[in-house]
Records
---
Amino acid sequence: MKYFYEKGLLDEKWVSDYCWINNPDCIRKKMEEQGKYHPDNMLPDGTIREELSIPRKK
């Protein structure tokens, strides 16, 4: 989330309404706590944004 936000690809609401306040409704956080995989482009509400991707080094 931080990466996408800092690159200007994600609205501030996603980090301010979920990440910065430790929102208990964050699906990403719940999955992390359960040790479950979630893709980098999954938003806190569980939505997958296909247009978001982190460049991988070769």
---
Amino acid sequence: MKQTSIVVKNETGLHSRPADLFVRTAKLYQSTVEVAKGEKKANAKTILKVILLNVCENDTITLTADGPDEDAALEDLRSLVESDFTKINPKVQI
């Protein structure tokens, strides 16, 4: 199991389009991926759960992945969030 923390710089946080891209990226991996804000946790592959975390600009989120491709999953999600949702994995269909 691996874990990393990231500050969300997107002005809308993890809502609507950013949440959609986040979930689509998480679904590319076999590993279980969880996103947490404070004490609240959600399955990173479920858009409604991610949106209900109410992640806003400058909030810190913690990503946890567990499985055969956990490193790649965390790296891809970290890259997506840190790029302000512009560095999208080419496998994600938009």
